[in-house]
């Protein structure tokens, strides 16, 4: 066995041991912070063993505790439960996952939403299927949450394509079909930085790439990335990166983005 193979096997063993040491509630806590993500774990009998807050709410419960031990027939109308149980049995009996199935489902307010659902089998240490995990993404909620960001897509693309040239606030406001004052307020509220700081970040990111991948002089890189002189570039680089461009290049650091 080669040293590389041994190292890889050791790493896999360390990762397995680390995963086994984790408490399931820690991972569930992370899922509670993912908007529009519904997470449920069921045992082989179809009873809920774990659920995040979003799943409990979707199923009409105050919290996970109220949902534990319930089956789909305790939670949903029989026709809906039949569909879910049929999918669950396919996963449990065959070991085949259901990946990204698009389906409609009602929420507690009787609205019909689109969900993308994935179900995977869960195995014991003896490699026997003991249950399944299900994640469903509410695409309706996700769209509403992402809509403000998608409305700024044209602005972000404009900066990405034109960072090497002078960019005025009026140019960006025009891309967003807003007045300059409206645009600046909306951008800052959405991204928590000003448009000017975003432009600076993009230019510095581009400069980092050139410093790491080319032999161009720092002065020429400053001009290539939209800075009107070397001192302007030096101040901007130090402000964003915390070190000078020369120090960055000498350390051979990669771009953090």
Compact description:
The chain is α+β, with helices and mostly antiparallel strands and 257 residues long. It has helices at 3-21, 24-31, 53-58, 64-67, 72-75, 78-94, 139-150, 153-162, 169-175, 180-191, 195-213, 218-224, 230-241, 245-251; strands at 37-43, 48-51, 98-106, 112-123, 129-138. A hairpin with a 4-residue loop joins strand 1 and strand 2.
Task: Itemize the secondary structure elements and their pairings.
Blueprint: H1 3-21, H2 24-31, E1 37-43, E2 48-51, H3 53-58, H4 64-67, H5 72-75, H6 78-94, E3 98-106, E4 112-123, E5 129-138, H7 139-150, H8 153-162, H9 169-175, H10 180-191, H11 195-213, H12 218-224, H13 230-241, H14 245-251
Antiparallel strand pairs: 1-2, 1-5, 3-4, 4-5
Helix pairs in contact: 9-10, 12-13
Domain HTH araC/xylS-type: 153-251
Protein name: HTH-type transcriptional activator Btr
InterPro entries: AraC_XylS_family_regulators, Homeodomain-like_sf, HTH_AraC, HTH_AraC-typ_CS, PAS, PAS-like_dom_sf, PAS_4, Tscrpt_reg_AraC-type_HTH
Characterization of the model:
- The structure is a single chain.
- This protein folds into 2 domains: 32-144, PAS domain (Beta-Lactamase, 2-Layer Sandwich); 151-251, Arc Repressor Mutant, subunit A (Orthogonal Bundle).
- The chain has 14 helices and 5 strands.
- It has helices at residues 3-21, 24-31, 53-58, 64-67, 72-75, 78-94, 139-150, 153-162, 169-175, 180-191, 195-213, 218-224, 230-241, 245-251; strands spanning 37-43, 48-51, 98-106, 112-123, 129-138.
- It has a 5-stranded antiparallel beta sheet.
- A hairpin with a 4-residue loop joins strand 1 and strand 2 (48-51).
- The mean pLDDT is 84.
- GO terms for molecular function: DNA-binding transcription factor activity; sequence-specific DNA binding.
- Keywords: DNA-binding, Transcription, Transcription regulation.
């Amino acid at each position: 066995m080669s040293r590389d193979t041994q190292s890889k096997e050791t790493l896999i063993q360390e990762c397995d041991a680390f995963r086994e040491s984790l408490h399931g509630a820690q991972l569930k806590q992370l899922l509670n912070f993912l908007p529009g993500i519904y997470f449920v774990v069921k045992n082989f009998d179809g009873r809920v063993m774990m659920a995040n807050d979003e799943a409990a709410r979707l199923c009409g419960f105050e919290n996970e505790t109220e949902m534990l031990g319930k089956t789909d027939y305790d939670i949903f109308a029989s026709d809906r439960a039949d569909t879910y149980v049929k999918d669950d049995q396919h996963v449990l009996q065959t070991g085949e996952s259901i990946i990204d199935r698009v389906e409609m489902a009602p929420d507690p307010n009787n609205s019909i939403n689109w969900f993308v659902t994935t179900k995977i089998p869960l195995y014991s240490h003896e490699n026997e299927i003991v249950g399944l995990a299900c994640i469903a993404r509410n695409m309706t909620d996700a769209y509403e949450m992402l809509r403000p960001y998608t409305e700024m897509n044209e602005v972000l693309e404009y900066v990405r394509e034109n960072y090497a040239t002078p960019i005025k606030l009026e140019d960006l406001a025009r891309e967003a079909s807003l007045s300059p004052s409206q645009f600046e307020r909306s951008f800052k509220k959405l991204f928590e930085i000003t448009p000017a700081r975003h432009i600076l970040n993009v230019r510095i990111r581009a400069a980092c790439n050139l410093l790491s991948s080319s032999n161009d002089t720092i002065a020429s890189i400053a001009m290539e990335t939209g800075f009107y002189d070397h001192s302007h570039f030096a101040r901007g680089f130090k402000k964003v990166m915390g070190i000078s461009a020369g120090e960055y290049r000498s350390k051979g650091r990669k771009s953090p983005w």
